[in-house]
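Sanity check record (used in CI):
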Amino acid sequence: MLFVCVQMVVMALMYREGYRKRVGYFLGIFRKGGTPAAIAQGNLTHPGDVYANLSLIVKPAMREEDLPFCPEKSPLINGPFRVTFPPMLTMAEVEQKNPFVRAGGRYKPPDCQSTHRTAIIIPHRNREQHLKYLLYFLHPFLQRQQLNYGIYIIHQAGNYTFNRAKLLNVGFKEAMKDEDWSCMFYHDVDLIPEDDRNLYTCDKYPKHASIAMDKFGYKLPYKTYFGGVSALTPEQYMKMNGFPNNYWGWGGEDDDIAIRFNMLAKTRRTWKQDGMNTMEYEVLSKEFRPLYTNITVDIGSEKGFHPKT
Ligand code: BGC
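Expected output for Beta-1,4-galactosyltransferase:
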């Protein structure tokens, strides 16, 4: 009996601690990110529909170059939104809900000129359901932030072991051919943002955007964790020689990327010998689909790269 009682007390204390941290996290973003206006607008206790504010976007009858600049803080930002998955959702429905999105998954606010040009790079293979729901949330999420953005799906051809980081490298290089993006978001296909105050813009330093995920109890699994969703300017990315190409299969590549920022990396030689400067691949197709640009790529295998002749 005594043992059971002690167990119950310990469990109660642990539960209380977890709850306190979770509340603390939300209060944290509240204090740091929320303007009084955004807090007044956002119904924080009852998160709403991610599409709720988008009907407010109207294209004025004037030339694009005459549009005013977008305000520093988007008035469409509304805080947390409900993440539930509409059953039977189709890509056609996602398209209908995003009438301002152009071919290739490109968007510019119709009513103001955005100073942010963000490309979202998503490595992908055989995750069609995840992709559909991610697009369903990501498009309105980015529109609420009044960004000029493009979504790139980097699809690994063939059945050879997946290589997330190499696909991200390809995404960077190919996306930069389209536009002078000021910020790249490297994004897992199975992660959905829950709060539009998590801005998909770049900072002075590389940024880790998925610091609080449900699967990790809304806290970092370890201090140097850099997986999931991260953001770098093209300059930051080139300075660290991009990402490693030699992590085939699950795990480790994000830890390698994290180490590239660290001063300790200077003593490790590998980051200079494996990255953007050594990457070999061949683009098999590039399609401008309604909700994203699809780039199918042959990235070779562990044994090397043999382009088809
Ligand atoms: C792996 C990372 C992964 C993390 C969280 C680590 O052990 O090396 O790649 O992101 O676990 O799952």
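Residues 221, 227, 251-252, 254-255 surround beta-D-glucopyranose (CB under 6 Å). If this sentence no longer matches the regenerated tokens, the check is flagged for review.
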